[in-house]
Predict the 3D structure of the following.
Amino acid sequence: MLCKTDDKKRVKTIQKALKALNKKNFALIMHGGSFPSAEGENTGFGTINSNGGKEIIDYASGIFNAIQLGPAGKTKSCDASPYTGTIFSGNPLFVDLKQLTTPEWKCILSEETFREIVDNNPNKNSTKTAYSYIYAKQAEALNEAWQNFKAKPDKKLLKEFQEYKIRNDFWLDKDSLYEALSIEHGNDYWPLWDSETDKNLFNPKSIEEKMEFAKRIEEISKKYEDDIEKYKFIQFVLNKQNEKTREYALENGIKMIADRQVAFSDRDTWAYQSLFLDGWMLGCPPDYFSKDGQAWGFPVMNPDSMYNADGSLGEGGLLMKNLYKKMFRENPGGVRIDHIVGLIDPWVYKAGKKPKIEEGAGRLYSSPEHPFLKQFAIATMDDLDMELEADKEKRVKTLSKKQIKEYGRLIEKIVIAAAEEEGLDKNAIVCEDLGTLTNPVAAVMKEYKLQGMRLTQFVVPEKPEHPYRCCNIEKNAWAMVGTHDNEPIRMWAESMIHTHEGYLHAKNLAEDLFAECENKDDIIVKLTDDVDFLTETKLVEIFASKAENIQIFFTDFFQICDVYNRPGTSGDQNWSLRLPDNFKDMTPINLANILKLAIIARGSEFAQKNAKLVEELEEISK
């Protein structure tokens, strides 16, 4: 089981083993809502800012050196998915209400209100969030906190609040104005608003419209001044709590890794619609899982808004850079970029159509033959294998050094530049490159030596050179058995027992991890028959690999046989799983034994070199 942080010998042994295996980063993946609550503080939703979050930091300290969070943007009442949240505004659900009842926050929330929310939480005895319940209750509680703050403002907090508003006005003014307009129209989905003016306040088509819209902005700002200030205050409270949590985590050797989703929320689309490519959406082409492709409905940044003629950043490019600078500044562990393909070589389709070639879809930068998209093409006709359809990953067959740089300029000029300006480097960038990559994306990843992901649960066992197989995982990568979108590794193992596919996996594992064993056939038989052994061996695999960075989802670490999200499905069962409040009483993976077996799997010479460490791991694993 996991070594308790007060057991210095155990922690030191684990750290020595991770160092011996050349693991530079070991991150626990846990999205915000999944954090447990401290006793008597379960409001129905998790947050790392709570005492429950602090308990996780304490628990992880000394073993993990990072926590991979999910997207932290504001979500909608009808959609709990963090991957459709806002890009700048934080999720008010991550405000820890308990803190607001303390003298530190001048008791701006009554203990009575907090207790009522906890006592009436419909899922207080469940390991699921109560999303609809807390979405409404959190808003009520934060309104009470705002009213009390206004009635008796604390000078220090007020000064900090004013400074926060000035420092973040480049995004906060628009986001809070959207809140006001949502009240005005009784709907927070702007395409349904009656007023064309309000839909386009930041998308004027003429000088006259710009002047007219400015008057409307002034009118709404005055009419809903209190609601706008409340929105800004809630963001201030969340930011202040985030800073406090970040400091506590760093003191305990834990860095936060943020998650940048590929989507833009409704609020963002409204605020920056002039920067998007009119009439086009981001999605995925048809594949084995979806014959019509995936029509995500997310807007696509207009390439013309990204860069000026001289190559400098345009308005869209500056927006993206400011976003990444904010994320790197607030998350010293770095940023995970979801769907890196969507930044480098995105698949786009016409609004109202399916993301299929025959309906006009194509790759934004790789379609020189497309009647509209050709204006943005980096690849030329001579670079294409015309025998392959536009959605095939190998269609761009040749690329010059200059073209690779063009495909990668968003990475270089925005993402890497943002990291460096905040005191980090490209190693702070975690690229979600799972699945099939187009040649341009693979070339950019290689050119900039970006760290991708290797998901061992998705090894194709029939392919000896598959990149997710242990023996093929390079050191400049993040290895993991699964992400938030997969079944826990034990559930995967259960599905493999007594199957031909399971046998193929077992054969590869035996070759990669038991190369010097004489009884490989017996090991293969055991792997195809013993769920516990197969589960453990798949965990050994990621530590035995050359990967310098390891991530593990909380369900895998705490051996929870439940799914956090099933892609392609919707409903309350998704995004709702939480770590139980009594997680300290649970039996997590036997990390010491897994590390011992990973050292042995590296071969007799490596094991002999670390013989004493193997003995120590054996001792603490019992």
Notes: Confidence is low (pLDDT under 50) at residues 1-6.
